[in-house]
C-alpha cells in the first residue's frame, strides 16, 4: 500500500454525472430503470410475504429464495435513487460518507447475490440428484449456516473498500463519471498511486466471481447428467425447463458483471457510456428478473398469489 498524503482532506461531496455522452437521453433512460426497480420491489416483497404466510413453502429452495429476495431489495434500493435523482431532478451531489456507504452496500450485496446463486444451485443439485435426502442434507440449521457464510464473506471482503478510500487524499476533480459510487470510479480521483488498491479490488471481484461461477457450472453439469438419466421424459423436460430459466438469470448476472470487471482491467478502448450502462444492468436486471423466474414460474408461489387475489376480489 502506498504512503498516504494526509495533508489533503477528503472532499465534502462528489458529483455523480450519470452516463457520459448520453446526457440528452437521461430522462428517457430513467424510465426503464425505475420500471425495473418497481417490479423488483413489488416482486421480491411478494415472494417474502408469500413464503412467510405459507408454511408449506418453508423448504430449502424457498428459504434461499427469500435470502436472494432480501439481497435484491437492498441491492436495487442502494443503486437506483442516485441515477433517478440525477436523471430526473438534476441532483448530482452526494456526500462523501454517503458515497462510501453506497459503495459498501453495492459491492458487498453483489457478492452476496453471487453467493446465494451458488447456494440455490447446490440446493437444485441435491433436490434432483439425491431427492430422498434433500431436506435431511439441507436442514434449516445448515441453510442458516450457509446464509451466514454468504453474508460474512460479502462484508469481510468488501469492508476494506470504503476504509481504504476514506484514507486517500483527493486533489483532482470531484466529478464521478458514473451513475453511482463505484469503487473504481471513485479511486481514480485520488492523487496518490492507486495501483495496489485497484489490484486488490479487481482481484477480489475476479476470484470470488470466478469461483462461484465455476461451482455453479459444475452443479448444473451434474444436474444435467441426472436429468438425462431420468426414466420419465416428462419429468426430465420439467427439470430442464426449471433449471434452464435459472441458468438464464445467472448468465445475465455473471456476463454483465464479468464485462464490467474485465473492462476495468483490459478494456480501455470500451466507450464509457457502454461500460457504465452495463454496470447498471448487472445491478438492476437480476433483481428485476429473479421474482419473475423464481416466483412467477414457481407453481406453489403462483398459486398462492392467485388464490389470495381471488379471495380479495370476492
Automatic annotation (TrEMBL):
Topological relation to the membrane, as annotated: Multi-pass membrane protein
One of the record's GO cellular component terms: plasma membrane
Chief site of localization: membrane
Keyword Ligase among UniProt keywords: no
UniProt subcellular location: Membrane
Positions of transmembrane segments: 25-50, 62-91, 103-122, 143-160, 202-223, 235-254, 274-296
The UniProt record lists the keyword Transmembrane: yes
CDD domains assigned: 7tmA_OR52R_52L-like
Pfam families in alphabetical order: 7tm_4 (PF13853)
Keywords, comma-separated and alphabetical: G-protein coupled receptor, Membrane, Olfaction, Receptor, Sensory transduction, Transducer, Transmembrane, Transmembrane helix
InterPro entries per the UniProt record, alphabetical: GPCR_Rhodpsn, GPCR_Rhodpsn_7TM, Olfact_rcpt, OR51/52/56-like
Origin superkingdom: Eukaryota
GO molecular function: G protein-coupled receptor activity; olfactory receptor activity
Domain G-protein coupled receptors family 1 profile: 43-294
SUPFAM superfamilies in the cross-refs: Family A G protein-coupled receptor-like
Function as written in the Swiss-Prot or TrEMBL entry: Putative odorant or sperm cell receptor.
UniProt cross-references to PANTHER family, sorted A to Z: OLFACTORY RECEPTOR 56B1-RELATED, OLFACTORY RECEPTOR FAMILY 52 SUBFAMILY X MEMBER 3
Protein name as catalogued: Olfactory receptor 52D1-like
Species of origin: Ursus maritimus
